[in-house]
Amino acid sequence: MVLHSEVPEDRARGTEDHRSGSSAAETAVYCRGVTKEFGTGEAKVRALRGIDVDIPYGRMTLLVGPSGCGKTTLISIMAGLLDPTAGEVSLLGCDLRSLSGSRLVQFRAENIGFVFQQYNLLPSLTAVENAAVPLIIRGVRRSLAIERAMALMTEVGLRERAQALPAQLSGGQQQRVAIARALVHEPRLLVCDEPTAALDAQSGRTVMNLIRRVTVRSDRAVIVVTHDSRVFDLGDRIIAMSDGLIDNHQREAP
Amino acid sequence: MNWLAWKMLTGDRTKYLGIVFGVAFGTLLIAQQASIFVGLMRRTSSQIIDITSADIWVMDQRQRNVDDIRPMPDSRLGRVRGVTGVEWAVRLSKSMIRVRTLAGDFTQAILVGVDDGSFTGAPLEMLQGQHSDLRRPDGVILDFDGYRQLFPGEPVRVGRVLDMNDRRAVVVGICRVTPPFQTFPVIYTRYSQAVQFMPPQRNTLSFILAKAEPGRQPQELSQRISQQTGLKALTWDEFFWLNIGYYIENTGIPVNFGITVTLGFIVGGAIAGQTFYLFTLENLRQFGSLKAMGVTNLRLIGMILLQASIVGIMGYGIGLGASALFFELTERSGQADLRGMWVPWQVAVIAAGAVGLIIVLSSLLSLRRVLVLEPAMVFR
User: Fold this and answer.
1) Contacts of B294 in chain A (CB under 8 A)
2) pLDDT score recorded for residue B194
């Protein structure tokens, strides 16, 4: 586990953006000239207007900005859930355009973990069963998947609540289960969408600290979309967006 | 993934049971009503069903069913016996008659006059007495349900006396028969005796029952009888289906039952389909998450079809079981109204087809929603 304060070199490398010549192979996510349009004719909306951005390994990158600025569209494209209208996207060294539908789905299953704003836990599964879902999707035997999920449940501090159903857990606990689920298959990219939005301030901070503590590793990139300014200080790097563009003043967290 | 599909399905118990109930309700209505329809149609041919020893039924050329009888002169029997290939041919009369007990209770009854010598046409299952008892003076065999109509609550025994058209008849046997369509008592006696019971009429011969010689095809022989005698000669199968066809074409029974079966299909399908669709809609976010996490459309189709199959099989099993239980209970209750009815395998297959259709239609709606679902929606 690599902690924020322990990675000054990584952080220094991560501050190199495209203007300083980073390549697709060196970064977890590499975007060049990414645009995304929805609708046609007069109803056409340009959600992204030519985004150039790199997401480095070993960092927790916060993607911030007001509602409607394109954050969600950008992480959807970065996670291979949405095709860009134009531009180049390389994910973990792989050009997404080279992946067909089923290979892209498999690529996501193997390499990407998700933490959603509304947790999206399956209500009929226990906490540990929920955490095991990505492994079950990959065909791992259920007993083995649950055993590995239990280890993650311990890591997020929910071992005692492993057999509880989501409805029996608080919002913060559900988000911790979601974090365990996102990490159980050891993804190289973790995408978190507003992980604190549905939580009170204290729970939100706890969850963000947990994400920092258990997810950031030198071989993994972590992107957190948030507009919760109270947790900005927990990110290694902040990318601000507005109106479909990256603000010029990307900055390192203090 | 099958485990996941099962857990998702059974997690929302209310909807899960609602879908099963919808399918079970549809199956019950389809299977039960269709079975009653089949049972009623069989009852229209009950006298044909109960006479299995003859290959061929011969009757007046214009006769269209087993009830609307145009009696023939007895001389027609000789003509049929004269046709090459006929092993034997005997007389059978069938008519309606008013029966009265000594206590004064009366009812209409079906009177069947069987061959005096061979008793061809007599009931197959005797509960008391035997066919040869018909040789006793005024002897008749009464069916069990008819006995209970005429002598309700009284012990079943031979020796009871009836009045048939002001003539004395003695019950010498109790039999079990296929319940007739009209649920009237069925009374068997010798042909020569039946003629005495009937109101006076010029002709009394309702049918001639014939048997083909060994090695002869009944179909071919029936055609030859028709050609040589000018009478209508039908094999057992042909007469059975002609009779049923008559009732299907000339009564409102198929339409009424058809409407009920259709309603069962529509209502059951609507409940199951709508609930299943709602179940899918409420799980769209979960399906979206699974898609985002790497579940292919093919596997999602498999999950939804598995869920639909589970509720389909369970609902079908419950519905069909309830139908079978219904007929079993009515049989055991001893009520003649629905006695002898059951769920034929053909009805079970048709109900399975209907349930399959309900499930496919329900699944298609849900599949469409899931397949067009953008995994990116989980971020919205």
Assistant:
1) 105-106, 108-110, 112, 134, 137-138
2) 94
CA distance, residue B280 to nearest chain A CA (Å): 13
B301 touches chain A (CB under 8 A): no
Average pLDDT over residues B132-145: 94
Q: What is the mean pLDDT of chain A?
A: 82
Give the pLDDT confidence score for residue A234 in this predicted structure: 84
Predicted confidence band at A134 (pLDDT cuts at 50, 70, 90)? very high
Give me the residue from A108, A123, A142 closest to B292, CB to CB. A108
Question: For residue A236, what are the contacts with CB-CB under 8 A and spacing of at least 6?
Answer: A4, A7, A11, A14, A59, A60, A61, A216, A252, A253
* CA separation for the pair B50, B239 (Å, rounded): 13
Cβ separation A137–B1 shorter than 8 A = yes
The tens digit of pLDDT for each residue in A194-218 reads 888 877 888 888 888 888 887 888 8
Q: Which of A223, A199, A219 is nearest to A211 (CA)?
A: A223
Q: CA A221 to CA A151: how far, in whole Å?
A: 21
| Contacting B residues, span 72-131, partner chain A, CB-CB under 8 Å | none
Q: Hey, is the C-beta of B286 within 8 angstroms of any chain A C-beta?
A: yes
Specify the pairing of strand B106-114 against strand B186-190: parallel
Q: Is B12's CB within 8 Å of A114's CB?
A: no
| B336 and B252 Cβ atoms separated by less than 8 Å | no
A82 part of contact set with chain B, CB < 8 Å: yes
Chain A CA closest to residue B285: A120
**Least confident window among A94-103, B111-120, B131-140, B162-171:** A94-103
Q: Identify whether the C-beta of residue A251 lies closer than 8 Å to the C-beta of residue A238.
A: yes
User: Does the distance separating the beta carbons of B296 and A72 come in below 8 Å?
Assistant: no
Question: Helix or strand or coil: residue B56?
Answer: strand
Long-range contacts of B70-78 (CB under 8 A, 24+ apart): B71/B201, B71/B202, B71/B203, B71/B204, B71/B205, B71/B206, B72/B203, B72/B205, B72/B206, B72/B208, B72/B231, B73/B202, B73/B203, B73/B205, B74/B203, B74/B204, B74/B205, B76/B205, B76/B208, B76/B229, B76/B231, B77/B205, B77/B208
C-alpha atoms less than 13 angstroms from C-alpha of B186 in its C-beta half-sphere: 26
The shortest C-alpha distance from B289 to chain A (Å) reads: 7
pTM of the model: 0.77
Q: Do B376 and A81 touch (CB under 8 A)?
A: yes
For residue B11, the chain A residues in CB contact (below 8 A) are 122-125
Question: What Å distances lie between residue A131 and A7, A76, A150, B2, CA to CA?
Answer: 29, 22, 8, 17
- Tens of pLDDT, residues B319-335: 999 999 998 888 887 66
> What's the Cα-to-Cα distance from B291 to each of A82, A148, B122, rounded to whole Å?
12, 22, 71
Give the DSSP H/E element, type plus range, for residue B171.
strand B167-176
Q: How far apart are CA B247 and CA B64, in angstroms?
A: 10
Q: Is B1 in Cβ contact with A122 (below 8 Å)?
A: no
Q: What is the mean pLDDT of chain B?
A: 90
pLDDT-based confidence at residue A10 (cuts at 50, 70, 90): very low
Name which of A106, A122, A142 is nearest B294 (Cβ-Cβ).
A106
Can you read off the two tokens belonging to residue B227? 């050609």
Give me the residue from B286, B296, B379 closest to A72, CB to CB. Answer: B379
